[in-house]
Amino acid sequence: MAVPALTRPRRMLTVPGVYVPQHDTHLLMRSVGRESLGPGTHVLELGTGSGALAVQAARLGARVTAVDISRRAVLCARVNAALYRSRVTVRRCDLSAFVAGDYDMVVSNPPYVPTPAALPPLRGKARAWDGGTDGRAVVDRVCATAGLVLRPGGTFLMVHSAMCGSDASIAVLARAGLDAEIIDRELVPLGPVLRSRLPWLRGEGLMADGQDKEELVVIRARRS
User: What is the pLDDT at residue 2?
Assistant: First the structure.
């Protein structure tokens, strides 16, 4: 099912250091568009970046809260929400600020690119995509947070690279009390970041010799 054209923001304003919507954003938007969102739906986006997903959910009628640790991302998300006349509450905070909640849906496109550095950077543009050695430094925190803030019957949607380990995400979500499955996947061309790391990725066994595409997956989880 295609996302209705009305809900697909055509262009997001970004500044250096804020993630520009790409294949993963659009893949997750497709999944969000398949959900039943309306005025009674309270959505939380973790790591909003440009605000593209938050704006989409708001244009589908949901009440949306979006958070990001980056000041620039918060500014961009607020501006984009205003440009699209979408009612989105944007807050600057870390994931640890959410210890409880009552959201109908949580969505996230977290930093997930594996990097030789053990921990994600604290500043700079790479903070928008670097996820530690296995790509899971932020992914695991997002999964745990979703488990804390979703109401019974609530839904969690997340996109990341298959290099992070889809089964690992499903297992982490299970420990958080959520039943999860892969609902969408897509092969996309390697971007400049992955191309620059090919020797290391192949050395780590994360990409095969001759592999020229990355598999993205969308995971849907539900609290029973």
Answer: 45
Report how far residue 165's alpha carbon sits from residue 72's, in angstroms, rounded to the nearest whole number: 30
170-204 per-residue burial string, b: 16 or more CB within 10 A, e: under 16: bebbeebebebeeebebebebeeebeebeeebeee
Answer whether 115's CB lies under 8 Å from 132's CB.
yes
The secondary element (H helix, E strand) that includes residue 168 is helix 166-175
DSSP-assigned states of every residue in 43-110: EEEES-TTSHHHHHHHHTT-EEEEEES-HHHHHHHHHHHHHTT--EEEEE--GGG-S---EEEEEE--
* CA 146/CA 56 separation, integer angstroms: 19
What is the Cα–Cα distance from 179 to 155, expressed in whole angstroms?
10
Spatial neighbors of 116 by CB under 8 A, at least 6 apart, are 133, 197, 200
- Supply 154's token pair: 């609530």
pLDDT at residue 77 in the model = 97
Nearest to 108 by CA among 182, 62, 49: 49
The strand pair at 63-68 and 88-92 is best described as parallel
Catalogue all structural domains in the chain, each as residue range(s) with its CATH number.
17-223 (3.40.50.150)
Residues 51 and 78: their CA atoms lie apart, in Å, by 8
Residues of the chain with pLDDT under 50: 1-7
82 CB contacts (<8 Å, ≥6 apart)? none
Pairwise CA distance, residues 207 & 61, whole Å: 40
Q: What is the pLDDT of residue 99?
A: 64
Per the confidence metrics, is the pTM higher than 0.85? yes
Q: Tell me if 125 sits within 8 A of 134, measured CB to CB.
A: no
